[in-house]
Amino acid sequence: MESSFKHRVIDIIRLIPHGKVASYGQIALYAGLPRAAREVGWILKASKDDMPWWRVLNNSGRISIEGNWEADKGLQRRLLESEGVEVSDDFTLDIEKYRWRITPAEAKKLQLPAEEIDHIIQKYSV
Questions:
Q1: What's the pLDDT tens digit per position in 37-77?
Q2: Choosing a second label site near 44 at 20 to 30 A (CA), which of 16, 34, 72, 104?
């Protein structure tokens, strides 16, 4: 049985627009488990679902694919660049320039408790 957290993570990643990025921690927060950034990475690594996985990176703006992963840093970089995201030779980017910032309406659609929505809006809203 697959977890509802996994499904929420996948649904949220599918919402990230073309040319935008989000951090693992940001996705975890939006999915209702703010301290589950590592789990978001594990879900991405294990998932065969059709989603724009390349739009998720660490919060410092660094592409950090490691280990036994079918994709690599070069592929993630090329996919991001194909969407207009500028990635440096050291696989970093200005995350604040490209960060997807959820709107209050989008946050409410996630059906999180009101206090979590307030926290999301304060931390990552436009």
A1: 999 999 988 886 789 999 999 999 999 876 545 568 888 99
A2: 104
Q: Tell me the per-residue pLDDT of 98-113, one tens digit each, with 9 for 90 and over.
A: 999 887 777 777 777 7
Q: What angle do CA 31, 33, 35 make, to 5 degrees?
A: 130
**Closest CA relative to residue 41, chosen from 81, 76, 6, 16:** 6
Q: Which two tokens stand for residue 35?
A: 């301290």
CATH numbers and ranges of domains, the chain: 4-124 (1.10.10.10)
Does the global pTM surpass 0.70? yes
Dihedral in degrees, nearest 10, Cα atoms 72, 79, 36, 111: -160
Amino acid, single-letter form, for residue 68: N
Q: Which of 105, 101, 100, 108 is nearest to 122 (CA)?
A: 101
CA 65/CA 33 separation, integer angstroms? 22
